[in-house]
Design a protein that fits this description.
Number of helices: 9
CATH class of the largest domain: Alpha Beta
Oligomer: single chain
Number of strands: 18
Number of domains: 2
Largest sheet: 8 strands, mixed
CATH architecture of the largest domain: 3-Layer(aba) Sandwich
Shape: globular
């Protein structure tokens, strides 16, 4: 399918902060955020686009380590405010929590029919070898790209980094050093960027005409992610699971969803489930999926009330659980939806039951 650039297409760039807009403090030697003018000064190519570009800036810009649900809600409100008048959105964001933000937005922007492309850089825009220029130029092109009938090529939340466009809720930061910083182990790229942009049409989500854009700003962060390891102390697990303010637990297990077959763990999970808490199983492995019926250890988790997270990333599982817990749903509905694809975050519907 050919893409058709159009002078009329409008792209809003939302600058939250991050390395792409930072500059080195001469006294301390540390990187500090500047405003969007710093990016424009080092990237005159922005003036050459045939699109109408506008910008919205967080004031002050933030380090992505300080990203939190209230700021995700702020991003949703900005997008909702400009949704009707804008063809695509580019979010400039620090890399450390970019996958969390992309995952959260994929659920909070229900019925999205326009591109929301997150990007950033490993080196500041003012550094000679920066990757920020190429990432930003590519992100703008992808946010504006449309087919012959004016429909957006990739109407979903994505991450554009290192010449690849990845589904946001399938992405994770895989390297602190390389320009190719993000990986999507269980989902192929939505597009690869070379001389031409090659779209993977079979992977791109295209909303039905019946879907309406419905922004959500409420999240419930009464959740925790726990990584199991050999020798983890039972007292710590019990203390966390018994916390009355806790509503959801992401359990990062071994391999295909296995955990110690110890009474202290299974009893803690069963008690939490009985209290209405939602326990979700995701693997610690980079690639692959949870299959709790494969081994007896995983089967024991099923019996205790754990639900499968399939091949979701931990970033996606955490933000999806926050999103669902904020809806008017009972615990059983949340458990069911955690195993159900809502925004392309799971390869296939998960239906592991006893």
């Amino acid at each position: 399918m050919r893409t058709q650039p159009s002078p009329q297409r409008r792209v809003l760039i939302i600058y939250t902060g991050g390395t792409i807009g930072m500059i080195k403090n001469a006294k301390s030697g540390t990187l500090e955020p500047l405003n969007f003018d710093n990016i424009q000064r080092h990237l005159p190519e922005l003036q050459e686009f045939d699109y109408h570009l506008s910008a919205h800036q967080f004031n002050p810009p933030i380090d992505s380590s300080d990203m939190r649900p209230a700021l995700w809600a702020r991003l949703v409100n900005i997008i909702a405010e400009h949704y009707e008048s804008t063809d695509g959105f580019v979010i400039l964001h620090g890399t450390d929590t970019m996958a969390y933000t992309a995952s959260a937005l994929s659920f909070m922007l229900e019925g999205l029919q326009k591109p929301v492309v997150l990007t950033g850089s490993q080196l500041p825009i003012g550094v000679l070898r920066t990757d920020g220029k190429e990432n930003l130029i590519n992100a703008i092109e992808l946010a504006a790209a449309a087919d012959d009938e004016g429909r957006p090529m990739v109407p979903e939340v994505c991450i554009c980094f290192g010449n690849r466009l990845l589904r946001g809720n399938r992405s994770t930061k895989a390297s602190a050093d390389h320009f190719d910083a993000f990986a999507s182990y269980n989902c192929p790229p939505l597009a690869t960027i070379g001389i031409n942009v090659n779209y993977n049409q079979n992977q791109i989500l295209h909303p039905s005409g019946e879907q309406r854009f419905t922004p959500h700003t409420e999240l419930d962060n009464s959740v925790i992610a726990i990584t199991l390891f050999p020798g983890i102390r039972p007292q710590f697990i019990e203390y966390v699971f018994e916390n009355p303010d806790l509503r959801g637990i992401i359990l990062r297990t071994f391999g295909s969803g296995n955990a110690p077959q110890q009474p202290w763990l299974l009893n803690a999970i069963a008690a939490a489930t009985e209290e209405g808490k939602v326990v979700v199983n995701v693997t610690q492995c980079d690639a692959g999926a949870v299959e709790m019926g494969l081994y007896e250890t995983g089967n024991q988790l099923l019996k205790a009330g754990v639900v499968s997270g399939g091949d979701m990333t931990v970033e996606c599982a955490v933000t999806k659980l926050m999103y669902l817990l904020a809806q008017d749903l009972d615990a059983e509905e949340v458990r069911k939806l955690m195993s159900t694809p809502l925004a392309g975050e799971i390869s296939v519907p998960q239906c592991e039951t006893l």
